[in-house]
Write a structure and sequence with these properties.
two-stranded antiparallel sheet, about 5% strand, mainly alpha, single chain
Length: about 525
């Protein structure tokens, strides 16, 4: 009886194990089948990175149309409407009480603009914004004296996302204070088809024509802020350069009038160059207002200053000191090229448009923004530290640069006021001219840091060097006023240090250097 019972139990348990094994095998088989199905689906997705819903060509400017083929990228692109403040950039939405129509409010200067207060007509395709970014002139009133006599002293606001780059340029009081040229459109709208059409198919000819137009006439030709067509070939989707300013600027920098950036630059370099189409220093050359990148002598601030000294260019005459001064624009590319990230081969897109995963797709995040707002993807792929630690490192660099920037702005304003006082006292003109030359240099170098949107982070040591140069030029200007000596010649520029991060004109961009040249002698000048 006992033996029979034990055998029955063994058979029952054996049967259960058999059933369990069969069920387990079935589950494993199902999971493997699902895994294989998923793998096959992902492989199919990777072979077809986008679905051709619409046909794109070299006339398709509307980013929403591109978005039908590239919904992942378009979904991120439209998020550039979001306004998030970082410590030294970005902006929250502000009520439309700051001036856009010539009315006087608490945030506008009491002095009326130089032109009639009636707002010039906006392009027909533009609606007046209900909110603007906050006024930097309210945040730092010293800037009114720093830019005295220039349109930026009337209206200067914190930069917002790419979605606002066009509308914020149209609805600014600077359009009322001075007649701005169509050249401004180069960095504020989707202009590829505008240039091409205005040139009858010739991009460069159209560029020249639009540059010379009044801004309002030029703006009426455009409809969108930066669009997909500005950076991508609609047939191959490869990155491309469409801004003539950079096409010509790179020929100047490389020392080769035949350099073709779209053929000779690597794909890796293009991930920086597409940003350098706009995020650069530039000026308007000649009466035709040709937008020009001043890169003949190199990319560093003092090399650019030396170019301006050679050409004698000035943006305006300073209202306090009568110095022939310069306004720096937004030299992010030039500063980035002096920093450790460029040295390491990290491009703009790696940090501001890091790769993201959507299923089997690996796409660049087209929500272009500060890496501080996206540290997990932008920073922690390389830097294995906590977000708090990385953010503190960023803020440490920026806080120190901001202090230097403040000291330099104070020094420039004090020099301008001193020149004005000495002019009233009848100080000899050669002395005043020399002091004004020093102010011009100090002002441009200080403004180079003020206008650059990383507050020193792109190249912290270079930012500190530029601020130190600015302070020294301001010191020399003050000394010139009070030494009692009459200069016999225009003051010489201080020589820049050896170039060991990025090469001078004619060199490769992402090039690693060997041993640096010999240290320059103290006080060496050019």
């Amino acid at each position: 009886m006992t033996t029979h019972s034990t055998g029955s139990m063994g058979r029952r348990y054996g049967g259960r194990w058999l059933v369990a094994a069969a069920v387990g095998a079935a589950i494993v088989t199902l999971l493997i089948a699902l895994l294989l199905t998923n793998i096959l689906q992902r492989k199919a997705e990777s072979r077809n990175p986008f679905f051709r819903v619409v046909t794109l060509d070299d006339n398709t400017v509307d980013p929403a149309v591109w978005g039908r083929n590239f919904p992942l990228q378009y979904d991120r692109y439209v998020r550039t409407v979001d306004m998030t403040r970082t410590r030294y950039g970005g902006s929250e939405a502000m009520p439309r009480e700051p001036v856009v129509a010539g009315t006087q409010t608490a945030t506008t200067p009491a002095t009326p603009p130089a032109t009639p207060a009636a707002t010039p007509p906006a392009p027909a395709n533009m609606e007046r914004p209900e909110v603007l970014s906050y006024s930097r002139l309210v945040e730092d009133p010293r800037l009114r004296s720093f830019w005295a006599g220039y349109a930026f002293a009337e209206d200067f606001r914190e930069e917002r996302g790419h979605a606002y780059m066009f509308i914020d340029q149209v609805f600014t009081r600077r359009q009322e204070v001075v007649q701005q040229p169509g050249a401004c459109l180069h960095c504020h709208a989707s202009v590829y088809t505008v240039y091409r059409d205005q040139g009858g198919g010739d991009l460069i000819a159209g560029f020249a024509k639009v540059n010379a137009m009044p801004y309002r006439d030029a703006a009426a030709l455009a409809k969108y802020p930066v669009s997909c067509i500005d950076c991508h070939d609609p047939e191959t989707m490869q990155l491309r350069i469409t801004r003539p300013g950079l096409i010509e600027g790179m020929r100047t920098l490389m020392g080769d009038p035949n350099y073709d950036i779209n053929k000779e630059a690597t794909r890796h370099e293009m991930r920086a160059y597409v940003c350098a189409q706009c995020h650069v220093e530039y000026y308007f050359q000649g009466p035709e207002k040709r937008l020009t990148y001043p890169w003949k002598n190199g990319l560093r601030a003092d090399e650019i200053l030396s170019y301006y000294e050679e050409t004698g260019f000035k943006d305006w005459t300073h209202a306090i000191s009568q110095a022939p001064v310069l306004k720096a624009q937004h030299p992010e590319f030039e500063m980035y090229m002096q920093g450790v990230h460029a040295r390491s081969g990290v491009t703009c897109a790696d940090c501001h448009m890091p790769y993201m995963r959507q299923g089997a797709f690996k796409v660049s995040d087209h929500w272009v923004r500060s890496p501080v707002l996206n540290m997990a993807a932008a920073c922690q792929t390389c830097h294995r530290w906590s977000e708090e630690e990385l953010q503190n490192r960023v803020f440490t660099i920026q806080d120190r640069t901001y202090q230097l920037r403040n000291l330099a702005i104070d020094a420039v304003i004090e020099l301008a006021n001193a020149i004005a006082r000495e002019s009233e006292r009848g100080t000899p003109e050669p002395v005043l001219t020399a002091a004004r030359t020093y102010q011009r240099r100090a002002q441009f170098l200080t403004d180079f840091i003020e206008a650059e949107n990383s507050m020193g982070f792109h190249a912290s040591q270079e930012a500190a060097r530029i601020c130190a140069l600015a302070l020294d030029y301001a010191r020399l200007g003050t000394a010139t006023l009070y030494t009692g000596e009459t200069p016999s010649a225009p003051p010489a520029l201080l020589a820049p240090p050896p170039q060991t991060v990025t090469p001078p004109a004619g060199g490769e961009i992402f090039q690693r250097r060997g041993a640096p040249p010999q240290r320059p002698k103290i006080g060496e000048q050019i």
